[in-house]
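Worked example 3 (structure in, sequence out).
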């Protein structure tokens, strides 16, 4: 009798030496027992590395900041969940009763974690080369659409297009303070986006400059967040 994870392995074009690894990768902690958290930790790191290396090779003239922003555009919870949905990963997840009732199989956080856990399972079972080839194949379309030119735009445009590409609400800018005399003013602006729980702030001699600085700081936060998870 074939198990559901066997069908997923076939969809991935793989045959696992130890099928228990794939089953573990699909098991959310709400189901109890062995779950996918350790494999997710491993997969998170290898996905970041594979994409970083591919970007490094593809864009030899791009500096570290551009490469980091390109990676952040590819490797994030929303994009990983989208790949998981193309694989219909939600149909294979093993969830506890509570998560099943609340629709956990549709949640971005659960889908993206399971995707990374699967990559961790492939690395463990099949080795790095097979794992790398799978990651690049699954990211293929998104990777091919990236251009360095997009990331040489001003910070507000970069951040806005990043949100649009992920189908998220546009950044919100709010004036926090305005001080100084008319000829020597200082604006402080706050920027909020759905991808970050923490807002960023910027300061400038005009509201426009303060918003640009706040957008630049938000891009930096996203980049640092990606590095921390890699």
């Amino acid at each position: 009798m074939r198990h559901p994870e066997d069908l997923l392995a076939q969809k991935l074009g793989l045959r696992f030496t130890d099928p228990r690894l794939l089953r573990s990768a699909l098991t959310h902690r709400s189901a109890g027992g062995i779950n996918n958290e350790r494999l997710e930790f491993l997969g998170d790191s290898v996905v970041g590395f594979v994409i970083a290396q591919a970007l490094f090779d593809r864009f030899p003239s791009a500096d570290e900041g551009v490469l980091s922003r390109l990676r952040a555009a590819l490797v994030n919870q929303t994009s990983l969940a989208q790949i998981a949905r193309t694989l219909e990963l939600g149909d294979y997840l093993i969830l506890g009763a509570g998560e099943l009732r609340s629709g956990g199989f549709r949640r971005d956080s659960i889908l993206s974690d399971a995707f990374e856990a699967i990559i961790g399972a492939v690395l463990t079972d099949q080795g790095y080369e097979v794992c790398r080839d799978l990651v690049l194949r699954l990211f293929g379309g998104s990777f091919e659409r990236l251009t360095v030119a997009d990331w040489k735009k001003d910070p507000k445009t970069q951040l806005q297009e990043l949100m649009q590409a992920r189908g998220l609400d546009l950044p919100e800018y709010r004036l926090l303070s305005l001080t100084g005399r008319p000829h020597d003013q200082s604006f402080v602006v706050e920027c909020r986006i759905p991808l970050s729980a923490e807002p960023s702030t910027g300061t400038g001699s005009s509201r426009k400059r303060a918003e640009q600085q706040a957008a630049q700081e938000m891009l930096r936060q996203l980049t640092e967040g990606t590095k921390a998870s890699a």
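Notes: The chain has two domains: 4-148, 155-229. The longest helix spans residues 207-229.
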